[in-house]
Amino acid sequence: MATRTVRFGHYVAYGSNDFLGAGAMSVISGWILFFYTTFCGLTAVQAAAIFAIARLFDAVASPLIGYISDHFHRTSLGRRFGRRRFFILLAVPLLPSFALMWIDGMSFWYYLVTYVFFEVVYAMELIPYETLAAEMSPDYKVKAKFAGARILCGQVAAILAGVLPGRIIEAFGKSSAETFFYLGVIFSVIFMLVALAVFTFTWERPREEIESIALEHGDQSPLRRLTQLYSDLIATLRIRAFRLHLGMYLGGYISQDIFNAVFTYFIVFAIGGSVVIASNLMGTMAFAQLLAVAAFIPMCLRLHPAPSYRIAVGLYGTAVLGFVVLYQMHPVPTWWIYVPVLIAGLGRGGLNYIPWNTYNYMADVDEIVTGRRREGAFAGVMTFIRKTSQAAAVMGVGFILQAGGFISGNTTQSPQAVQTIVLMLALGTLTLLAFGWVVSLRFHLDRDTHAVLMREIARFKEQPDPVPDAQSRRIVEDLTGWRYEELWGRRKTATGHRSHLDSPANLSSTTTE
Q1: Which parts of the chain span the membrane according to its record (predicted)?
Q2: What's the average model confidence in pLDDT over 410-418?
């Protein structure tokens, strides 16, 4: 792969997109359920239904976008604007749809349509973007820095998502739905600016290089192409490192989704605080996350991702237990709450960075199995799973809140409802953290094993049947979950033909699939 020099400005431009990626998710997970149930007259179940319906649309949209971006270089628009960057440019004028979600006094159908529309626009921009780190450089350290730049910018966006509602309330003198509309407008402008920056200052793999590693599908019917789309998505789950990566990712992120969705309720109804206090606490937590990301970037390079992940889980879990202790001691001085908030931020920063660091290497593991580069397929799966898991977490919180006796619009809640809030904050978060911890014990992708992987890929390109040493065989088989003899598209089906999944690009076009 031909490489270009990556400079500081490229890292900044690439990373800035997480003002959209993480910023939108921070605002949605932290505030939208509260907004729907407090200002829009929706029940918790109605709000949960919006997330469920949106996931049905996303089940088609996210995989389709990933597949199209993998093959868009064959179109005239793809040749002119890039197979990835075209979609980033196309999303720019549609991103202000984020602000339309935060208007009060509308119907259930209005909130459903505006939420679904933004989710599709979000996927259209983010999925092609998530392929760019692997497209721009094959170097392990450069990819780690791209991930670091991305998550650092995402933490700045999370700070804004946390503190802006409080600042807007202070400016206008009241807590109202207008607070969230102004929040939506501010973030919409930011989203447009960063998308333009990404389009302008990033690049893609050269087209001739894409053609040399991409399967030809020109003679396939639309039905065959649709089948190929979903078979590619399912095939990503046959990569062992990717399955383990998803386990760590979901453990770290769903635990935060549950926490975020219930945190404002916890502060307002369990601790007796206000929306302004909740906003300040979320902003403080996000600031601690920003510092933690800066610390976890070199930690992952020296200590490696899985051990660093377990340190982050330990910090976050300790903080969650701290919140429970404070609730049991209530009332307590307000400043006491900042202690677990800061500890939680340190753990959450690591949990945010590490999965996106390891994600950048998944297409490398896949390449040695299939002989293909399918960054778009992996990005589609990641975005779909991320949004589905977040929606499931927020939906779950909504259903459990209502089952626990929570009444939308009330300024106080029953003791049963408050207990439900506390249990969700504690048990929901800690259960997912424990799951991620267990998965991380089996994840062995790091700088050293990645170097072995890339060396073996180079050997496959040079030799039709390379013979590995024992250590290289063990490492590659552990990362892929495949026997070495089956790699590079050499696995056979029961009939003796090469399977559709495993056909690499450099095989003859006459190979039977």
Answers
A1: 20-39, 45-65, 86-103, 109-127, 147-168, 180-203, 258-279, 285-304, 311-329, 335-354, 391-409, 421-445
A2: 86
What distance, in Å, lies between the first and last C-alpha atoms of the chain? 28
Q: Rounded CA gap, 267 and 261, in Å?
A: 12
Q: Which domains does the chain have, with CATH numbers?
A: 12-205+222-445 (1.20.1250.20), 450-485 (no CATH)
Which band of pLDDT confidence, cut at 50, 70 and 90, is reported for residue 467?
Answer: confident
Residue position matching structure tokens 């001691």: 329
- The CA–CA distances, whole Å, from 363 to 134, 368, 373, 375, 428 equal 8, 9, 6, 6, 32
Two structure tokens written together for 314: 């330990």
Cβ neighbour number for residue 442 with a 10 Å cutoff: 14
Neighbours of 134 (CB within 10 A): 23
Which tokens is 149 given?
């730049």
408 neighbors 38 (Cβ within 8 angstroms) = yes
**What number is the average pLDDT over the span 434-462?**
94
Beta bridge partners of 498: 492
With 0-12 / 13-18 / 19 or more C-beta atoms within 10 angstroms meaning exposed / middle / buried, residue 218 is: exposed
**pLDDT over 90 (residue 496):** no
User: CB neighbours of 361 closer than 8 A, spacing ≥ 6?
Assistant: 140, 143, 241, 445, 450, 453
Is residue 503 within 8 Å of residue 489, measured between CB atoms? yes
With bands split at pLDDT 50, 70 and 90, how would you rate the model's confidence at 510?
Answer: very low
- What residues have CB less than 8 Å from 449, skipping those under 6 apart? 475, 478, 479
pLDDT band at 225 (very low <50, low <70, confident <90, very high): low
Say how many C-beta atoms besides its own lie within 10 A of residue 358's C-beta: 27
Question: Measured in whole angstroms, how far is the alpha carbon of residue 103 from the centre of its chain?
Answer: 26
Q: How far apart are CA 252 and CA 151, in angstroms?
A: 14
Whole-number Å distance between alpha carbons of 458 and 463: 9
DSSP structure string for 361-422: THHHHHHHHHS---HHHHHHHHHHHHHHHHHHHHHHHHHHHHHTT--TT-SS--HHHHHHHH
HSE toward the beta carbon, residue 31, CA cutoff 13 A? 30
Residue 100 CB neighbour total at 10 angstroms:
19
- Those residues whose C-beta lies under 8 Å from the C-beta of residue 213, and which sit 6 or more positions away, are 367, 371, 372, 373, 505, 506
Residue 248: is it exposed, middle or buried by C-beta count within 10 angstroms (0-12/13-18/19+)? buried
DSSP state of 492: B
Q: Of 267, 257, 278, which Cα lies nearest the Cα of 398?
A: 257
d(CA 286, CA 200): 28
Residue corresponding to tokens 């790091």: 446
Q: Measuring CA to CA, which residue among 156, 193, 191, 186 is closest to residue 171?
A: 186
* Structure token digits, residue 150: 């991305």
Could you tell me the sign of the dihedral formed by the alpha carbons of 21, 23, 28, 29, in that order?
positive
